[in-house]
């Protein structure tokens, strides 16, 4: 690593007695006092750690400047989004060189049949085109604030009234305001410190918003009449179950306000017909423990007797199948509340390997799944999960996950109605990316985006891969026309054919096959280049036996193989392929970029998630370790130049693998890491704790869960140097870089702060650094230029370990 000529000494944290005792287990926690952020000692320790980090990494200033220049030279800094039609306007966003935030603008539509986005000059000044209005300039709104985040931006149907919510602290609490766009003035209405996602009714007369409880959980819904004081607002819904979060949204046809309330495993949707905005919300389907569902209302025009419309409800649920199914309910014969499982089933996922699948629970999720009721395109899919179905004016779109990747299919509405009447599976057509013009197979993400209007004749969708910039496209499923609207532009000498991507499988210690995405620059990894394979690949690599016992190498190879390996593995969230301009600076220096799609995520469906949560959480850590060791055993990566990365729940993963297999990693970057997990999950008064019990288990009331979490929570399990020598034959421990924020409400700053204090203890001897943002939230600092500087800071540290000759 690069650091100043005179090595500074890490700050020594005070040790104050504090005993945590649950289920007969005593844990001495000498750094719990740091939880008091107003304690002068906490403030001084934060200041000293930031100074120590700055001094230690002063020698990387040149590399940071180089990386920042590489990034900014590749980015088209003055740009605009493709206009999107909503009611009578085309809305779009401009970004200008030198400005941190976007500027929201609009142009009036030409006529009711105007569905072709207008040509807008990307380099023109906001508001300079004939008819163009600036409706929200975030740069102007952010003046005087160190942090700025927009929590909602909603407009009335006539385009006159705009609701917006601002967070200027980083704590994810928003102040709501209503602006009259015809007069460019804010109304006196003030609704402060509420959750994100407030909604303005289409007529502009009412605002519905969510309030927060003392644990920062969105738990209530309030109704506000525009033009009145917030003191007169009425609470219209309260969620008393502390596991549940509340959210709001309009129905797709904007006829109803919907409340969605859910825990990690159970959900419920309530509806209010906006013909009577002061009426009561009614559950569409009463909640049932362990059942998740969503519902949308649509219609088939002129499909009923005498040319009447056929109203339908699309219900997405997992009452019968853990990987969800989609049912279509004829509303001429059904009225809410609906019953889950009624109607016509259009598609269902694979139940293989899921907890609630009876005899099929023993089957691996990668086993091909066939069901006669499914569309042809789903037959034989592995890890099949249904993710949603949307009905538009002239077409239907199905989204699903198979073979660890997202997929999308369409059918025109007339054909769908024909199949529905015939009682046969719908003849969906998968939307496939064009063949790469250089003949390189890619790992694509694909999915609908930016489709606010039911009336639009085309489907907008986005696709991209690790090596190709994202494309926004529009498909007319009826005419079969698929056109490019915009491709993200990379400036400079970028050429996609220089970069290869491949997905392989690693067989880990319990026999599971873990998908792994690999990205590299051609010509810099002979072993990967030599096989000639790119894209999805069924090649299986066996992880070494007992990878945690592999010795830390003593001699540098002639040709180091640097690797940046990143993971998450929680909440059923999938890490899908996506292009990153910042990643190019790593790849161009010979770094192999690897993403193990470990259990706990959703890449292979619900079974993949279930096998990496609660009392199976350790599978997440072991998968990551086994994949790391397998790639190193292939000669594709060198432990001495391997850096691992993860954030939030992925930061917990980083802390765990550092403790369990330190000799596989030279460095670990942990962003806002959840490393004092057990302490947090034991305290129901902390933000989000009770809602997290569905994910991690409840250690407060369940001794088995407590013992299990106690065995892996990183803070409690940091091995000192003597223990590392006994377990691993070396006292090596990876260098650690931690980032956090004092205003983070999801992972409190105290967790990483305590962890670093433990790592820096003399008996542990870890080379640990922490950078603490004073004005930021869980997602880091705001403003694109400052975010780019933060990325350059983090990448410089990683490169100083991965590539010895970094410059």
Write a structural description:
The chain is an alpha+beta fold and 807 residues long. Helix content is 19%, strand content 29%. Strands 35-33-34-37-36-38-39-40-41 form a nine-stranded mixed beta sheet, with helices on both faces. Strands 3, 4, 5, 6 and 7 form a five-stranded antiparallel beta sheet that branches. Strands 8, 9, 10, 11 and 12 form a five-stranded antiparallel beta sheet that branches. The longest helix is centred in the C-terminal third of the chain and has 19 residues, at 784-802. Belongs to the peptidase S9A family. Residues 1-21 are annotated as: Disordered. Pfam families: Peptidase_S9 (PF00326), Peptidase_S9_N (PF02897). Keywords: Hydrolase, Protease, Serine protease.
Question: Which percent bin holds the helix content?
Answer: 10-25%
Strand proportion: 25-35%
Radius of gyration: 27 Å
Order of strands side by side in the largest beta sheet? Answer: 35-33-34-37-36-38-39-40-41
Q: What would the principal axes of the Cα set say about the shape? A: globular
What is the structural class?
alpha+beta
Unreliable parts? 1-5
Q: Residue-averaged pLDDT, rounded?
A: 93
Largest sheet: 9 strands, mixed
Number of strands: 41
End-to-end Cα distance, whole Å, is 12 Å
List keywords for this structure.
disordered N terminus, alpha+beta, 15 helices, 41 strands, 9-stranded mixed β-sheet
What layout of secondary structure does this protein have?
Elements: E1 19-22, E2 25-28, H1 40-56, H2 61-74, E3 79-80, E4 84-86, E5 89-95, E6 103-108, E7 133-137, H3 138-142, E8 149-155, E9 161-167, E10 174-180, E11 185-186, E12 191-194, E13 199-200, E14 206-212, E15 218-225, E16 234-238, E17 245-250, E18 256-262, E19 267-273, E20 282-283, E21 293-300, E22 310-317, E23 325-330, E24 344-348, E25 385-391, E26 395-402, E27 405-412, H4 413-422, E28 429-430, E29 444-448, E30 459-465, E31 471-476, E32 481-487, E33 499-507, E34 513-521, H5 526-531, E35 535-542, E36 563-566, H6 583-587, E37 592-596, H7 606-610, H8 618-633, E38 642-647, H9 649-660, E39 667-671, H10 677-681, H11 689-696, H12 703-712, H13 721-728, E40 735-741, H14 750-759, E41 768-773, H15 784-802
Parallel strand pairs: 33-35, 36-37, 36-38, 38-39, 39-40, 40-41
Antiparallel strand pairs: 1-2, 3-5, 4-5, 5-6, 6-7, 8-9, 9-10, 10-11, 10-12, 13-14, 14-15, 15-16, 17-18, 18-19, 19-20, 21-22, 22-23, 23-24, 25-26, 26-27, 27-28, 29-30, 30-31, 31-32, 33-34, 34-37
Helix pairs in contact: 2-15, 8-9
Domain Peptidase S9A N-terminal: 13-296
Region (Disordered): 1-21
Protein name: S9 family peptidase
